[in-house]
Write a structure and sequence with these properties.
With 479 residues, the chain is an alpha/beta fold. The protein has helices spanning 19-32, 50-53, 91-94, 105-123, 138-148, 176-179, 201-208, 217-222, 226-229, 233-238, 275-286, 309-322, 335-347, 360-369, 385-391, 402-407, 428-442, 445-457, 462-477; strands spanning 3-7, 37-43, 57-66, 69-80, 83-89, 129-133, 158-163, 171-172, 194-195, 198-200, 211-214, 243-245, 296-300, 326-330, 352-355, 372-375, 395-399, 421-423. Helix 1 crosses helix 19 and helix 4 (105-123) packs across helix 5. The longest helix has 19 residues, at 105-123.
Length: 479
């Protein structure tokens, strides 16, 4: 039985700012089902709900050296759904009102990385593999090689570093090398931590990890080119033999239209027509005309440029002015995009519902009630929205990038295969053409129902993705 320690900055259900937390909440469960001894280690943030804190038991405490500092470290444990979660307790670093964006984030996550390694002997748990996620844990791989490899306990421990979004790298001033990280200047060079005059935690993770993964096959290819590589494409090309893309899964227990308590009417692949009842109830709830015959297009998204909202802004009047459609939007983000959808709701009453908030229940109801899910991202390492949409039989219209390309197959009228609609170029009228293609097929009910069936038959559960991670772990063990 392989022993796996997953190190990350956030995890559902304890604390979440983005998709990383969903992965760390679901992947351990799927790995456990493959007979792995998997455990997770996180910072103990102030934002973790008190109900979870009350269930934690103190395992031990120790002192973590960080350059000239000697910092307290408490280790608390909570077993959640059969998986042990360890929490690094240090109020100086983690008792704050938000997870990220503090002046001393370099010190906070250097401390966390060091604590991950320091606590293992005290826990009497020697993992075969430490699976690190994103820049917050990049220094784990560095410290293992620089400070711990010579110690008998740590010998033989391998590392896998997973990139969730290369756009967030953890870049800090060069002064931290000795003062915070406790490393000598030999680490501040271009083939280690130095990055355009700064210190890059993500780069450290990539350089020192034994293997690297990212969250889709296409994104693994894209980031080896300058356009998507965020100035790390050269390093990633150099390590291409060690780089693997594995598509994220979604939790099929949470996202299950047959049992979802949030939606109006439950349905499954054999009772797809009940989806229309969800549509009617959603239209009524949002104040849209209750019409079965009108295609309902949905977006559940952060309202930021990377999600392709400039394409939508460019053609939305052409779409809403000339097509008999309804548009529902759920999300928050940049003020200019929030204003765009507010204006559209005013300009096209009865056709647009703008919900500028985060509402988990409404999100589920939109996935269940909409006909088309629009996700024209500029780039998308994996994407979760399109996976949920497929699960609920809401057909995605997506751009062929990253995980969108890997999970949405454009409908082919000759073979009957395909679970959605795609376009290749980041071009507003290519997107509009693809939307109109979907709208045209919407009225051909036998064809449309076949595509919906294809979508709901797609398997993007964590069980499939976990098998690929297990294969990577085996590869590491053989090194």
């Amino acid at each position: 039985m392989q022993k796996i320690l997953i190190a990350a900055a956030e995890a559902v259900p304890f604390v979440k700012t983005g998709g990383l937390a969903d992965v760390i909440g679901s992947l351990p469960q799927a790995l456990k089902g493959l007979d792995a001894d998997v455990r997770v280690i996180l910072p103990k943030y102030e934002e973790i709900p008190a109900a979870f804190k009350a269930q934690m038991t103190k395992k031990t405490e120790l002192t973590v050296p960080l350059s000239w500092r000697q910092q307290y470290c408490g280790i608390e444990e909570l077993v959640y759904q059969g998986v042990p979660f360890y929490f690094i307790d240090n109020e100086y670093y983690f008792k704050r009102t938000r997870l990220y964006g503090h002046y001393d984030d370099a010190e906070r996550y250097a401390y966390f990385s060091k604590a991950v390694l320091e606590c293992l002997p005290a826990l009497d748990f020697k993992p075969d593999i430490i699976h690190c996620h994103d820049w917050h844990t990049g220094m784990v791989t560095v410290y293992l090689k620089s400070h711990y490899n010579h110690k008998p306990f740590y010998q033989g421990i391998k590392t896998l570093f997973t990139i969730h979004n290369l756009g967030y790298q953890g870049i800090f001033a060069p002064t931290i090398v000795e003062d915070v990280l406790g490393l000598d200047q030999s680490y501040f060079v271009p083939d280690k931590l130095e990055f355009h005059g700064g210190v890059n935690f993500m780069k450290g993770g990539l350089v020192f990890a034994d293997l690297i993964s990212t969250v889709s096959r296409t994104y693994a290819e894209e980031i080896q080119f300058p356009y998507f590589g965020e100035k790390l494409d050269g390093l990633l090309r150099q390590r291409r033999a060690d780089l693997t893309g594995i598509v994220n899964g979604i939790d099929y227990n949470i996202y299950n239209p047959a049992a979802d308590e949030h939606i109006f009417v439950n349905y499954d692949i054999d009772t797809i027509d009940k989806k229309q009842q969800n549509k009617a109830s959603l239209q009524q709830k949002l104040g849209l005309p209750v019409r079965r015959d009108v295609p309902l297009i949905a977006m559940v998204s952060r309202l930021v440029a990377s999600k392709g909202l400039d394409l939508i802004a460019h053609i939305v009047d052409e779409l809403l002015g000339h097509e008999d459609v309804q548009l529902v939007v759920l999300g928050t983000g940049d003020a200019k995009y929030e204003r765009l959808f507010e204006h559209l709701a005013w300009q096209y009453p009865g056709k647009v519902s703008a919900n500028l908030c985060f509402d988990e229940k409404l999100a589920h109801q939109i996935y269940a009630g909409a006909d088309i899910f629009l996700m024209p991202s500029h780039y998308e390492p994996c994407g979760i929205g399109q996976l949920i949409a497929l699960r609920y039989g809401t057909l995605p219209v997506v751009r062929e990038t990253g995980g969108l390309k890997d999970t949405v197959l454009s409908y082919n009228k000759y073979t009957g295969q395909g679970n959605g609609f795609t376009f290749a170029h980041y071009n507003a009228h290519d997107m509009l053409y693809t939307i109109k293609r979907a709208l045209g097929l919407y009225y051909d009910k036998p064809v449309w129902n076949q595509i919906v069936h294809n979508a709901m038959a797609s398997d993007y559960s964590w069980q499939e993705s976990a098998k690929h991670y297990a294969e990577l772990y085996q590869k590491l063990a053989g090194r």
